[in-house]
Amino acid sequence: MKGFILLALAVFAALQTVDSACGSCKTMKWVDCQGAAPPCTCQLPLDENTPQPIDCEKLVSKCFLMKAEMFRRRMGNDVRLNIGGKPHEDAIVDNDGIYDPECETNGKFKAKQCNKTEECWCVNSAGVRRSDKGDKNINCSKLVETFMVRLELKHKEVNSKVDEAALKTSAKNLLQTRYQFDSNLVKEVQYDPDGRYIVIDIEKPKGERATDIGTMAYYMEKDLKVSPLFLDQAKVQLSGGSQNLEMDKILVYYVDEERPTITMQHLTGGIIAVIVVVVLVVVFGLVALFLVNRKRQQRYSKTQQREQM
Ligand SMILES: *[C@@H]1O[C@H](CO)[C@@H](O)[C@H](O)[C@H]1NC(C)=O
Ligand SMILES: *[C@@H]1O[C@H](CO)[C@@H](O)[C@H](O)[C@H]1NC(C)=O
């Protein structure tokens, strides 16, 4: 009996070693890796028949992640929360929530997405809808690149004062160490102590195609809102100097290299700001026109009066 237990333990230990050699994937918790030692074969199931090989040293593309998540949902696992919208110039917010995307073999989104229905729309490189919904003949001539995301975070209450400079350093570190992004992509970090709001702008040069900002933002959104996509489930926190900050809310704005083509009546929160500005200008314009006209009319009637005399 003792011998049997020892043997069982030995087998168990051996399995453990095999497991630690290849079993899991650093950048994606749903992935299984096969093989006794690196190089391992790591595959993410995108649907019943598509095991997608992935590189566990890198972030997995958002398109693959969404597809895998839809598959898991169909199988009855895991869900994603929807996020709401709030005005900000020219930015779009993902108000639609998750869909089952079509991905290119390299993991990029196809420009046209239909969620397996007859209703289709155009997305940006972050997979967020940037056109009205149409039928399956809708033309999305190319995938428009998202070059900037604004993360709007609200942190939980803390006792000490939050230091803006420390916050910026912490955001840069997070980008570099956790997502393997160039920390210089953090363009600006703003802080509003009253609302406990942190705004982080992450931006790459227009035309740059090496950095996938949408994927990074998706990992970050999951890290802060639901649970990490990484194998390591430790909570991600930003440092406010003397204290770590836990997040209450996160809202992501996407800014594309070309303006979105969503029309007025289907406006999402993100575009209302633009329209409001335009409307104000129009109203001011009309008032100005009205005043000018009145002056002109007055002058006109004066001349008329003079002529009548
Ligand atoms: C896509 O389809 C799934 C189920 O078929 C649904 O739950 C989801 O809300 C749809 N998403 C969009 C953006 O239409
Ligand atoms: C899309 O483009 C094709 C060919 O360029 C055209 O035949 C079709 O009518 C267009 N569809 C829409 C909805 O504009």
What does this structure look like?
Among the domains are: 13-58, no CATH class; 147-256, Alpha-Beta Plaits (2-Layer Sandwich), CATH 3.30.70. Strands 4-12-7-9-8 form a five-stranded antiparallel β-sheet, sandwiched between helices. The protein has a three-stranded antiparallel β-sheet with strand order 1-2-3. Mean pLDDT is 79; it is low at 9-19, 78-89, 270-285 and 300-309. β5 and β6 (121-122) form a beta hairpin. The longest helix has 40 residues, at 269-308. The protein is an alpha+beta fold and 309 residues long. It is built from five helices and twelve strands. It is globular and about 55 Å long. The N and C termini lie far apart (128 Å). One 2-acetamido-2-deoxy-beta-D-glucopyranose binds next to loops. One 2-acetamido-2-deoxy-beta-D-glucopyranose (NAG) is lined by residues 96-97, 99-100, 115.
Characteristics of this structure?
309 residues; Alpha-Beta Plaits; 3-stranded antiparallel β-sheet; 5 helices; binds 2-acetamido-2-deoxy-beta-D-glucopyranose
Strand content: 15-25%
Strand segment tally = 12
Question: What string, H for helix and E for strand, traces the elements in order?
Answer: HEEEHEEEEHEEHEEEH
Main pleated-sheet profile: 5 strands, antiparallel
- Give the CATH class of the domain at 147-256: Alpha Beta
Query: What structural class results from the helix and strand content?
Result: alpha+beta
Residues in helix, %: 25-40%
**End-to-end gap:** 128 Å
Strand order of the largest sheet: 4-12-7-9-8
**pLDDT below 50 for ≥5 consecutive residues: which ranges?**
9-19, 78-89, 270-285, 300-309
CATH topology of the domain at 147-256: Alpha-Beta Plaits
State the CATH architecture of the domain at 147-256.
2-Layer Sandwich
InterPro entries: EPCAM-Trop-2_C, EPCAM/Trop-2, Thyroglobulin_1, Thyroglobulin_1_sf
Domain Thyroglobulin type-1: 60-140
Keywords: Disulfide bond, Membrane, Signal, Transmembrane, Transmembrane helix
Transmembrane segments: 267-292
